[in-house]
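Re: duplicated header lines in exported structure tokens

Our pipeline writes sequence and tokens for each protein into one text file. With two proteins the header for the second block appears twice in some exports. Here is an export where it did not happen, for reference. First protein block:
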Amino acid sequence: MIRYRLLLLRRMFLGLLMGWGLWIVYPPLSVYAQLTVSGRVTSAEDGQGLPGVNVVVSGTTVGTATDLDGRYVLVVPSPNDTLVFSFVGFETAVVPVAGRTVIHVELRPAVILGEEVVVIGYGTLRQREVGGAVTTVNAEELNPIATLSVNQMVQGKVPGLDLRVRTTQPGGGVSVNVRGAISPRGNNTPLYVIDGVPITEYRQSDPGLYDRDLGFYGGVDRDPLAFLNPSDIESITVLKDASAAAIYGSAAANGVVLITTKSGRAGAVRVDYRGSYTAQRMQDYFPLLNARQFMEEQRRLSYDRYLYENQLPPYGSRNPNSVPPYTPLFSDTDILNAGRGTDWIDLISENGQVIEHNIAVRGGSPNTQFYTSFNLQLNDAVLKNSNLNRYSLRLNVDQNLSSGVRLRLRTQATRLEGNNASTGANAGGPEKFNMIQNAMTFAPTVPIYDENGNFTKSYYRIQMNPAAFLIIDDDSRVTSLFAAPTLEVDLTDQLQLNVVGQYQEETTLRGFYLPRTADHDVLPEGMAQKSTNSVQNYSAESYLTYTGSVGPGVLTAVAGAGYYRGGTEGSFMQGVGFFTDAFGYNNIGVSSDKLRSIMNSWKSARTKLSQFARINYALQDRYVLTLVARRDGSSIFSENHKWGFFPGVSFAWLLSDEPFLRNVASLSQLKLRLSYGEAGNESVLSGNTLQLYTTGYPFVIGSTEYNGVAVSQVANPNLKWETVQTFNVGLDFGLWRYRVRGSLDVFVKTARDLLDFNPLPVNNPVGRLADNVGSTRSRGFELALHTENLSSSQLRWNTDLTLAYYKSYWVERNPRVPLPPYIGEHDPLDALYGWQTAGIIRKPEDRPAYMPNANLGNLIFVDQNNDGVLNEQDVVLLGNTTPRWQLGLNNTISLGNFDVNVFVYGYLGFKRYNNFAPSVDAISQVTTPMNTTIYARDIWSTTKPEGTRPGVAANPYATNNPTGNTDFDLHDASFLRLKSITLGYTIPSRWLGGVASSVRQARLFIDVQNLGVLTNYPGFDPEYTEPNPYPKYTSITVGLELGF
């Protein structure tokens, strides 16, 4: 049955909503007589007053016009009237009076749809000229409230952009790909370009934790765009096909995301402030066994384990008198007095909160325009001892140095600091440092402290007490600097020179200390680690742009070159064994266990040279041909392939401008797009083109032993980058004066020269050689639709729909690597293989003839070919693990001073294992014993023959399964999520008293995130792949926006 989990802070939200609603319905002041309204009408472009603007009371002939300075005075019949401001060449503004006496209005220049400017690589084009698959999301469509992630703001708003949150910890990582991940071994993340500058070494700078006994994990799973303030974003443009992305060459196989930040405007200085408070509540984690249930299930299952291990009936025929009697771990009295016990999940969690202040100032003169902002976000997460604070400062300046010479400067400095939750791999720590996993599995019968005030131990000694995680220090401090100056020189009226520089540095300092008092089983005397890592990127680009008439058309051409250098360096140290916790991680040298002390350092760098060009020719403003090419040479390319060439071509045809369609009244625009292009994926080359050696191979000459060096990787001088080819057919349309508009794209995306490893002869100790072999493909379509459902002076309702479908599959495999019989040559890339099951053996007669040795409580595996043997011939394709369909639905309604936004997104057509099922292991429940979810109550046993989950007896046939997978606990994970509801109210100026003349805008808002999910998936959340994910939460934000 489909379940709808409405995970809302009900009382809090309803209380706020009712109180706010009463305040609005019964305001402190009401006026029901005519009043005089005055104000000034200015241009949104330069802030200058507009003379001659018509100001009319809607539905009447009452009106006036602005004077030479753009000022007006008008007596309106009622405070509930609406004013209409209209002027030739500007968009009409409809503004409710709402009792205000001072109304200032900015008019935006009228943009004819199809004529709006679209940011592309190294320039801009009019929308009607774009021939590739390009989608732009503007600032008005983004929701920057209480988020650290620029990435998350576009989720569900760009068709074909697959963006899923990997972890909800503050600033946590996201998985992003465009039109499917088709590189099996390479990076499938798109290239990010910020204010025209490619981020050439785009990687996390956070160092990881390491221990010889506990294993190694990488850095904190952090969104690498966390350094950007979402409120600074002007637009985000996604180049989805290779014809549009080819100008970025070997780094653009996975698409390109262009991020443009806000800039200054000439005119009066404007100040915008937004302050908000967010309350977060962890959504209910999957229910665990309480103390009494834990005891009952442990005793029930341990009794069956006793029968099985001693081969007593019904598992065997041994005489019960020949073995020792069963002794339960918990008695009837223990169970009767147990109660609910310790709720470890509740112990490590709390209600989170986010406090945010954002202030932006923009303005300038005709020669100097500036935009500057400061953002402060204090984020205390829903797991205790987990927080992240961001301090961000941006300054963007556009300066006319002289006639035809301009300097544009984009700078940002960001500081992130906080304590990382110990959540295993997500926090860069060993899996045994996973507070969520421990809280789920730590026995609820155990108290927090023992009689001496020390943390208690579980029955499974190696488990650390969940409360002990709360005294771990794991601090990260990230400093990010970004600067990108651009010099623009108009050489002639038609020729412009652009010189762009860029510097980015992100440095992370991380300190970790596991105290002695945590009483860790492996590290009882404490462990300290300290690490630093710095990522630096430099680039310099220079290009010429020509625009002029050539023959009957207009030619726009770009040609340039670039130099890029990126690298990382860092160091790491560890100490084990401390006589006191007083030093934390700040005096590692006093550690006593010198054998486990570690010091390490690293450094790497890469460089790239590029030449690029684009030619755009528009004939009769109706037929547009675009040619793109880039040539890249990189230090990570192999010896025999140092340079790559990446071309692209697109054609746009404005069908609606043809005579045979020009008179169709309902048709505002119809444009056909055709494109083809190639781009490269250079990520597969990193480290794989080199001959590598390793030490630690001793050999003896005479009687002396030496430490030898051996080859660990054989170089392949012919190794190339992966190349992605995209063919795209698109249709842009607008109907009924663009009240309905959108685009439809169909694409084929093929990757060739895939990285794979060919086996070497058995006498070669390396074992394999990197090579280019194989091909994959993704096919699909995308739809973007915008409708203006209602449009009047009082009520507006717009809807945006995005829909995408794609399927990725193999085209060609490596012929040197034989495939198992169950894998098809052209199977999906995300195929999941395994055995099908047909229930549980509850009684002897349920045992299939081909499973004669199966035990009661075992899963029944399906013999697909009826040959009486379970083996690889019985493995089938169980499904795919990535969504086939992506959906986004956004509705915006404004009624008078109110505005409402509702956003829903979803992923359909994929399967996922129940992410809590791995914790339900009948044998572990007995032998450890560890706690688990209430699924344990469904485990089959001799005293519960109706159980639906496998029992304690081992299945002798499971070892024949070559994949280890079955369809048991595999479910359809399709879902629709109600992501956000935002309710806003613009405060009438009459309520502002004496400050009304100074306040341009005042708006209150409530935003609710993650209200619920519609799904048939039984696990915690269908978006998560981790078995013990960072908890998801529902949040309510209340805030105030002010404009001066």
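Second protein block, exported in the same file:
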Amino acid sequence: MVLSVTRYKPPKINQIIHRKRLTNLFEMRKGKRLILLHGKPGGGKSTLVADYLKTYGKQALWFNLDIDDSDPFLFLKRLLVGIINQKEEYKKYLNEVESTRPGESPDHLFDILISCVELEKDRHYSIVLDNFEIAEGSQRIQEPINYLIEAIPDNVDLFILSRTYPHLAIHKFRSDKKLLEINDNNLAFTTLEVNELFNRVYAISLSPELADNIREVCGGWAIALGLLSEALQNKSEEDRNQFIDKLLQTESFPAIDKYFAEEIFGKLELEERELFARLAVFNQITPDLIKKISGYEEFDILHVLEQRNLFLEIQDQEKKVYSFHRLFSKFLSTQFRNLPDIEKISIHKLAAEFYLERGEVGKAFDHLILGKDYPGAENIFLRDADELMKQGQYNTLRRMVETFPADIRKMRPLLLYYHAITTNLIHPVTTRKILFSLISYFRETEDWNREAKIYSVFLTNFLFYQENRETVTNIINTASVFLAKAERYLDPENKEVLKALIPLGKWWIMPDSDEAIEMVLTSEETSLRFNNEEGLLFSRIVLSRMYLDRGEFQDSKNILITAERRLNKSGATQQYEALLRFYLGDTFFYIGDLSYAIQQVRKGLETPYQGFAFRPYLELNHALYTLYAENTDEAELIIESISGREIGGNLMLRYYCIYLLQMLLAYRKGNRRRAHYYCKRLMQPENELLLMTDYPYSYLALGEVNLFIEEYDAASTILKTMLEQAPVGMYPYPNATAFGILGLVYSRRGEKKEARKYFQQMIEILKSKTYRNLDICDPDLLRDIARQSKSPVFSEFLRLKEGLKEVQSTTEPLLEFHTFGEFRVFVNGKEIPGPVITRQKKVIDLLKILIVHRDKGILKERVCDTFWREYSPKSSRDNLNTIICRLRKLLGREKEYIATDADSIRLKEGTYTIDIDKYTEYIRYGEIAEKKGDVNAALNFYRKASYLYSDDFMAKDLYYDDIHDERERLKNGYKHFMFKIAKMGLDTGNFLYTIEGAKKLISKDPICESAHRLLMIASAISGNRSEIPRIFNTLNEKLLCDYDIQADPKTVDLKNRLLSGDTPEPSMWQDEILI
């Protein structure tokens, strides 16, 4: 019998890691003679066993089964030939085996097999049956295998390697605890094994987090990890990072798709391939779903697929719910996209029917949309829309309605209505127009309830955006007329909600009314009665606003914190979070906790809504709070990033943007002329309406700035006018502030008696209301009031406590780190000499890692693992304590710069400055300006950031992953905004900026073709076309040298066009992207 040698060869085991976690299971199995490994193709079964046998020097026969081995006679005969040919003493049996003929009983062959094995009874021997699934489908093969399992002596280990779970008589081995079973879950690589594979075998360094992400996407699947490693091996570090980023985003890469196409999908039957493609759009697969989609009434392919382990993963064993492996699912999605459109629509239609039959309306809706059955989808949508709206599930509603194409929405009034309702707080101007236009439609169709909802939305919308009273009055009047006419036709909830909101609007018009709080409480009661989450939340925010206006800050805080808990718990009406943060910010601002006020507006600015019209309100408060918090430079950056925006006709935005913030910024920076100008402008009669939008606080700002520019009469007049118009009973906080400023005015005039009178009135209010703050922008002015009034109440002012700390901190040693390029450290303005840094390498390495982890600190255990991985835990901790002590000594003991606890270590907040933070700040403000369409401001910020980036982050530190990862993050960001500078330079006509940005980008990425193209265009615009051949040739030579390729045809075409005299035009650069 002539057999291929490959039948008896184990797989090659080059470029693998030794998986001790699993091979230890083989070594420590304690009498378990049957070892079953079953799992998906490419799971590493064969490699694992081959590595184990080789590593531990095991004598073994490796037998690769093929389809002919389903014949028990041939199987046994071939198995025996393999065993006999291993040893000379076995060859006496060869003639007997060769002489046997098909049809004879296999018992004689079994006897020979046992005889051969018994010759090895003094030593262990292994038989490996690989690719067992090929023959396992035959019932005939099961008998000899079962016999073999039962008959093999104790010194023989039988390994069965199969993609499927074999139907063999192994239950006895399991019950006797003689079976070791390893499945897909065991075979999956752990994060540590992924890191080891990439690092040791392919010399690719991964952070633990990145290794874990790769493991998760690949499911720990061996072949996927191997193919990915090979794909990354010859790439540059930058290309490698981009490749991994794309993998994590798309859950796919070319090599694994090719594997699926050739090794899995291409080997399926046509019927199976078609079914797999049809199932690609489903996250969960059940037998009933397959039956519906396949068209076969008794199509039991799921059982077959499960048995063959074709990348089906069990989600729920009891309910028989499955899903595809993530990588395979993405591959199948491509197969689905390649189906004819008519077939895809048919599949979605069948799926919609399937889910509707089972009451899974959400899934049915999705498939109706994908199948372009928009009327059917609209019917489902309308069935639940009002209930979702009642529950405040606006995000869910908006996502559903936005799945309809925009042209379909425009033609369907109800879809238009729900879309406008759910986005009215995000895009108020456009949605108001749409809702106004729908009123006539609902009136004609006598849809009174939806018309009532529109009026309710108008009232909340106009109050949300703090519109002027005239506008609100018109809405109230119109809504009142409608309610009088249609009340009897309305559902109870719509009627009661509108009846409660109209008084709320009247409160807006008459905030001083004694009935105001009662109106709000009536609205709250109505909302509770009808379980209206939106109405309840809005009522409480309005109530908190009323308390703010009346100076009852603690009451406002308590209400808002309760509302915040309710908002977080319900998850509904998330659009109101921005408004909640706005008023929480104001509350803490008035209380005097500026850091918490700033935190609140920053949380509000994290809204996920694109183009949210409420953002300017939060940004303006962010700027205002920052001015008060003695951070003038940051406030200036914020104001600069929002200046020049389109503010429309909103008076409050106009007042803040154009006048107040500019005036206060000039005041805080000591620019008397500029402060005086804006002060005069605000005091002109035509701006009286602007002042009233923030009354009476606008008067306080004018009084404080007039005091600064020494216009004492003007300051006195403004403040006294405010005191006359705003009685202390209604405005205690502004009155206390006004009395404090007036005290200073008269003190500086030398009228001490009058000054004491005003200070005393201020103190009485502070004590009676337990205020611990005044609405004073300049903290030095607040200190002056505290000093001159001599009241002990100021000792409890949080702002003064913070201010004292900040004053002290500027006189004590302060650390300064320069991290771009050469690492430099300054203590109290004096640089630590380079030789000192060089001599204390481990100490400086710790400092550098603390800088990387400056936000949250780093676990001591992780530092020990980084520096002293081979040491015992005690030795590592001792070493770390020594290094921390030496670092403290190096930085100086005048101030504590390092904070430690039992588990972690960090740089102490507020004791250092670092160039990265300023760099990041410039980029952030550049991005803000860019989003607002202010390209010139964005360019300015990006260029400021580029000047700080003198070289890569800690450019000479090559050995620590943490520093490397931070360097790559910063470098990628740098290249990104250099590209922006280059493009924006062309957009704005500043071609020199383009040359600057493109050259800096090319210095970091010499083969970036888009940067070279932008540089060629800028050279042509600047009249320097002679540079174009040099730019092109430099790129082309680099590509040929490094990759043996030439420049992209797009680059060649651009060069030729520019050299032929074509005038550069926007179409040449507008589509450029950074790859």
